[in-house]
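Researcher: Here's a chain I'd like modeled. Treat it as a single chain, no partners, no ligands.
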Amino acid sequence: MLESQRFRVLSLGGGTQSSALLLMSIRGLLPKLDAAIFADTQWEPKEVYETVGWLATQAGVAGIPVVQISKGNLRQHSIGEAGHGVRCASMPLYVVNPDGSHGRVNRQCTREYKVEPIELWIKRTLLGLKPRQRVPADIIVEKWFGMSSDEASRIRTPSEKWQEFAYPLCGIGPSGDLRLSRNFNRGATIEWLRVNYPGRTFPRSACIGCPFHSNYEWRRIKSDPETWGDAVRADNAVRHTAGIKGEAYLHRSCVPLQQANLGNGVDDEANLFNQECQGMCGI
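Model: Modeled as a single isolated chain. Structure tokens:
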């Protein structure tokens, strides 16, 4: 067990906001993290993996470990095995029911592929606890999330006493004397990264086939034929997912992805990730 009784851990998605938090900690604008944890679904875009690798190098110089963990391949488990009687973590697929009404599947993927693996790493590796061993009462793990101030609806409180949640871009936490001088919305976060890391772009962190993509994100994915092909094949594969009575789709319009109207570049960048209150995706 480490001597300190408070630990600061970042949920690193490899996207804009969580990358900014890690870099702010590296630069001393925020307290030093004990670790940044990237829970890999094995279905992230190439630019996310490239960003995480670059961040690991930057953080290593500052003595902050970037830890990559994975429960397995979400695409395979949710799509490839969905029709073979295998219990799968559900994605928030859009569904056309037999009566023609529209609905959406309850989302389990974030909890099972991000929240739970991170908590397991914290307990087993960071705190050195054995299975079923409780976190001692004098231990606090401060978990940082990269939600920006325009995503304040995603802020939540922990259900366990050994955890504290910090949202530094929203002015909530972290503990200690170092605080940001102002809150950051997504635009301000992008601008801070542009000024301090010119020439480097930071993606939105989300699985390639995530149904929460806005049309803006789908257009970005479509610009890469290999990634777009993967998304289209996944969309075709979920159409008759086991356990769903109707037809399932990745795009909110409930039409095949290849036929979906993705707009013309001036329509929207609707942040559907505001519906993802775990604070693990889209950051």
